[in-house]
Design brief:
With about 230 residues, the protein is mostly helical. The protein has helices at about 5-35, 40-75, 85-105, 110-140, 150-185, 190-225.
Length: about 230
């Protein structure tokens, strides 16, 4: 049987998208019990642990989507860089993914918080790069091909950049959970409870727009409308 590289990458891309969208929905639902003051602190912490375990799959999916998309873009002839560049890209993203998992494994420690902040700092580099490349390409300045029938790729990259911004804010919120639950473990604290409640409710509100953007990314990839 002949190996179809593009088909395998497309399959992996679909799996990553499913875990991303499904994982975010799981965290959204679990957050209701994280802030439920009627529950004991230990039970609320168990729900927070569940949210983290679901979220790591979403984080994995959102990171993997970019190298998978860039690799497929090269095979489609839209993204011009291949060969050694693709190899280096995969190594860089593998390191980023390892960092993300390291932060998850050490999430209850100061080391985990530091690793999470490094993960977040990487996004401050990746997000502007996505916007610059996608907008420049849509305006006809490259580096991506943006002829009729190819512009969907740059548009998808632009919307993906928006999702990274929203995801970054949601990462900030989840990082706050760990810090605030450390304080709550020392005893009841109405001020921290109020802050936790407001933080998660804000996160839920932006999650609705997040899902619209995720669906748009999937639509551009599946339909390739322009």
């Amino acid at each position: 049987m002949e190996f179809n590289e593009l088909a395998v990458l497309r399959w992996a891309h679909i799996i990553a998208m499913v875990y991303w969208l499904g994982g975010e929905w799981g965290v959204f639902q679990t957050s209701y019990n994280v802030i439920n003051r009627k529950l004991g602190l230990d039970e609320r912490k168990r729900h927070m642990e569940t949210a983290y375990r679901i979220d790591i799959l979403a984080r994995t999916g959102i990171i993997l989507l970019l190298p998978l998309g860039l690799h497929m873009g090269h095979l489609w002839g839209i993204q011009p860089l291949g060969g050694a560049w693709l190899t280096g890209m995969w190594i860089a993203f593998a390191a980023w993914l390892a960092l993300c998992w390291g932060a998850f494994i050490k999430r209850e420690t100061d080391v985990g918080i530091r690793l999470t902040k490094i993960d977040e700092a990487i996004r401050f580099v990746v997000i502007p790069a996505l916007f610059i490349v996608s907008i420049a390409s849509l305006l006809g300045h490259g580096p991506l091909e943006a002829e009729p029938g190819q512009r969907w790729y740059s548009a998808k990259m632009f919307v993906y950049g928006i999702t990274l911004i929203i995801g970054l804010k949601l990462r900030f919120i989840m990082r706050e959970w760990t810090s605030m639950f450390r304080i709550l473990a020392q005893g009841p604290n109405a001020e921290v409870e109020t802050k936790l409640d407001k933080s998660i409710r804000f996160g839920r509100n932006i999650a609705y727009f997040y899902w619209v953007c995720i669906s748009t990314v999937a639509f551009f990839g599946a339909v390739k409308p322009f």
